[in-house]
């Protein structure tokens, strides 16, 4: 790609809502960027190499926001007001006053996550938020790890969300950011109750989705993998008005329904699909399937055929 084409591509990224990106001298430039929004929180993820993200000083568009840059893999350099911080894999940096100007440089290829959220949402939870214009958050911070995992799981969900759900997710993110930066005592308790529980529940649901085909899957097995107690798992599902068993059943039935309506595998027997979904008894599978979808597996497959 010519230098002119590279410059045009970087400008187009900025026009789509990223920070201004510019090439670093004597480096090979590379960029892969994705963006999504959750309420008033904007999330940016991807890879950068030989590039620098720059927020110019006194830029009005950055006022009223807070930026959190997470260096997921590789190495990056954060700079503000002549001060520099080296970000190793897992580290993050918070810029509570972005209008003061800052830069995030990736001399070599590094994987990143970036958050832009309203200052007014975070300030009540973090004492002296503006005291230090640039804060390093070490990668071993547990709440930061939860945040990164939570954001990646959210980014992989393609189903549409409601405005109400977006607001709840927005507060979960704010809670996890506050815990990572250093919330005050009362806010820590509140944030742990909301943000950490939400991230834990996401991880547990992902575990179930990965293992639901195991007919012997139990809450004890999932709890052991997630290093929590079975009772804690039950309590997390109770916050959503459901149970572990109900979620596991829903995962199995949705998988079976997908298989039954897939034209590429119409030759497969209904029994084999039921067993692949984790059911050990065909009659109970038929009964539960009909209760959920209002039709038998045979009727659903017949409708898909026609």
Provide structural commentary.
This protein has a domain at 3-211: Jelly Rolls. 45% of the residues lie in helices and 22% in strands. The protein contains eleven helices and eleven strands. It has helices at residues 3-15, 119-122, 142-155, 163-181, 185-211, 219-225, 230-238, 244-260, 270-276, 282-293, 297-305; strands at 21-23, 30-38, 41-49, 51-55, 65-73, 76-80, 83-87, 92-95, 102-106, 110-118, 135-137. Helix 3 (142-155) packs antiparallel against helix 4 (163-181) and helix 8 (244-260) packs antiparallel against helix 9 (270-276).
Provide a concise account of the structure shown.
The protein is α+β, with helices and mostly antiparallel strands and 306 residues long. It has helices at 3-15, 119-122, 142-155, 163-181, 185-211, 219-225, 230-238, 244-260, 270-276, 282-293, 297-305; strands at residues 21-23, 30-38, 41-49, 51-55, 65-73, 76-80, 83-87, 92-95, 102-106, 110-118, 135-137. Helices cover 45% and strands 22% of the residues.
What is the string of helix and strand elements? HEEEEEEEEEEHEHHHHHHHHH
Oligomeric state, counting identical vs distinct chains: single chain
Using the coordinates above, name the CATH class of one domain: Mainly Beta
Based on CA inertia axes, which overall geometry fits? elongated
Q: Could you give me the name of the CATH homologous superfamily of one domain?
A: Jelly Rolls
Helix content: 40-55%
Number of helices: 11
C-alpha-based Rg, rounded: 23 Å
- The chain-level mean pLDDT equals 82
- Would you tell me the structural class of the helices and strands? alpha+beta
């Amino acid at each position: 790609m010519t230098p002119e084409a590279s410059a045009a591509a970087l400008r187009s990224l900025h026009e789509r809502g990223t920070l201004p990106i510019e090439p670093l001298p004597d480096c090979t430039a590379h960029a892969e960027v994705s963006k999504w929004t959750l309420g008033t929180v904007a999330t940016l993820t991807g890879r950068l190499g030989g590039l620098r993200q720059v927020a110019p000083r006194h830029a009005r568009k950055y006022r009223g926001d807070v930026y959190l840059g997470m260096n997921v893999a590789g190495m990056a350099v954060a700079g503000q007001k002549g001060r520099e911080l080296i970000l190793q894999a897992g580290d993050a940096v918070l810029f509570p006053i972005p209008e003061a100007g800052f830069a995030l440089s990736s001399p070599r290829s590094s994987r990143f996550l970036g958050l832009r959220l309203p200052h007014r949402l975070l300030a009540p939870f973090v004492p002296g938020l503006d005291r230090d214009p640039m804060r390093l958050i070490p990668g071993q911070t547990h709440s930061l790890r939860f945040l990164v995992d939570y954001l990646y799981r959210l980014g992989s969900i393609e189903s549409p969300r409601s405005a109400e759900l977006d607001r709840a997710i927005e507060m979960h993110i704010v809670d996890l950011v506050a815990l990572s930066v250093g919330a005050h005592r009362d806010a820590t308790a509140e944030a742990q109750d909301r943000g950490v529980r939400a991230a834990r529940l996401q991880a547990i649901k992902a575990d179930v989705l990965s293992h639901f085909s195991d007919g012997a899957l139990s809450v004890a097995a999932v709890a052991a993998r997630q290093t929590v107690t079975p009772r804690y798992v039950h309590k997390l599902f109770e916050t959503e008005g459901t149970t572990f068993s109900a979620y596991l059943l829903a995962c199995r039935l949705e998988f079976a329904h997908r298989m039954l309506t897939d034209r590429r595998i119409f030759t497969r027997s209904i029994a084999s699909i039921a067993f692949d979904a984790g059911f050990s008894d065909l009659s109970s599978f038929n009964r539960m399937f009909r209760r959920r979808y209002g039709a038998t597996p045979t009727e659903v497959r017949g409708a898909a055929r026609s």
